[in-house]
């Protein structure tokens, strides 16, 4: 079976060109709120872990110039998009192709003013990683976290649970926190003090269950390695059945997917 980190890398390499349209464009309000709360100032040294295509990374770089922002991601295609975005803005972005946990382990202590993780907790051991952020922050530095919560996409998860129960398959636990408070508590274990926490809810509409299923894959929202255990001739009928069952949620506007996000900003005293 393909290693989980290799799977994440291959998925995001494949969808890099479409990522902003499929997911990033829906994230503008919470992304802007997190960036505004970081207290960015010219000359600051920052790292954006799981930077993706760099839409927020480049905005951070613009605000701290002539300071430095390092964009870290396990997908080279995502990093290529981020560098292209920075160059178009007349800025030079430093990038590292690495997993967030690996970077955290190798970074020098007290070496950054700002560290951010946006929508990457699902791909790392966040219970272990979040308490380690305080080590690499300088006194007065801030950490910003933006993540999906386990309450997101309840429509899709309910269908998934019914199907796995019917097939006598074990359920996969949702790999994200349950609340903003859970994130704050883990950051506090690393010596950080919460400055601001919030939740953000929104709904996406789709014309059909097939569109929902396609979006979940093409946005990178579903990347679990367990999917690779099924050969295509088995997986495709399961996806078709999943899409058909989503029709039970149809409303006049279409089929909804609900999302709940958490934002947390914490500071090192």
Describe what you observe in this structure:
It is a single chain. The longest helix is centred in the N-terminal third of the chain and has 19 residues, at 4-22. The model has no long low-confidence stretch (mean pLDDT 89). Helix 3 links the parallel strand 1 (45-49) and strand 2. It is globular and about 55 Å long. The protein is an alpha/beta fold and 269 residues long. The chain has helices spanning 4-22, 28-37, 55-64, 76-88, 100-106, 126-129, 133-136, 154-166, 180-189, 209-218, 232-245, and strands at residues 45-49, 68-73, 94-97, 112-118, 137-148, 193-206, 255-267.
Poorly predicted segments = none
Cα-atom radius of gyration: 19 Å
Biggest beta-sheet profile: 7 strands, mixed
Helicity, as a percent range: 40-55%
Kindly estimate the percentage of residues that lie in beta strands according to DSSP: 15-25%
Shape by Cα distribution: globular
Give the SSE order as H and E letters: HHEHEHEHEHHEHHEHHE
**What is the tally of helical segments?**
11
Strand order of the largest sheet: 3-2-1-4-5-7-6
Mean pLDDT over the full residue set: 89
Q: How many β-strand runs?
A: 7
Class per helix and strand makeup: alpha/beta
CA(first)-CA(last) distance: 44 Å
